[in-house]
Amino acid sequence: MLCMTKGKHEMAQEPQVLRLGEESSWRTVEDCPPHYSPESLHICIDGVLYYGACFGTGTTTSVVGKDRGVMSFDVRSEKFDAIRVPQGRARKFTSMTRYCGKLALIYTVYGKIGLWVLEDAVKHEWSSTFFDLPRLSGYNTKFQVFCAVDDGDDAGEFVLAPKELQESAFYVLYYDPKKKRVRKVDVEGITEHEELPLWDKDWKRRTVSIFPGQIENLMFL
């Protein structure tokens, strides 16, 4: 387990790890690059945790976009690495996903889904690919592309969901860019419980995470 706190100007400080076991205890990781602010966007692929980061020595508002990149943490070696992201729209990514077994950054632009795929973390090499967004004229809401399906019969599909919670049941859309096909899946038990304080209808004040093919492995701590 990795725990990270934020200090002045929301800069990362005092990263700690906990190895699960009978004699587990928290200890500080010394190998941590200075002067960056961690973001909530994250994904774990093959034992490496990737998360968004803003690099710089000033406030976070002065470095967002210009010095935005990706941090990685290898849970085996307990080593941090900073990964540069190509300049331009790639630094405005809205989510992370697994694509062809690799880390990919997602953003939308001019009716297209943009993917920047990490080919070599050491050399900071990325490749880009684009897919046309589906026509969703029948839905009265704005959508966000959350992730891609990377395995199983549905591999290659993208998962879209509304940005704002509405009175009707929450749902996700699976979009296959090759077949130009969209299918809808309703998710019950979210918007129906308005008494739950964590679900705020203001999308700027709440976080929705979607994980395709998620399998939980429960462990009591």
From TrEMBL:
NCBIfam families: F_box_assoc_1. Pfam families: FBA_3. It comes from Brassica campestris. This is F-box associated beta-propeller type 3 domain-containing protein. InterPro entries: F-box-assoc_dom_typ3 (IPR013187), F-box-assoc_interact_dom (IPR017451). Residues 2-203 form the F-box associated beta-propeller type domain. PANTHER family: BNAA05G37150D PROTEIN-RELATED, F-BOX ASSOCIATED UBIQUITINATION EFFECTOR FAMILY PROTEIN.
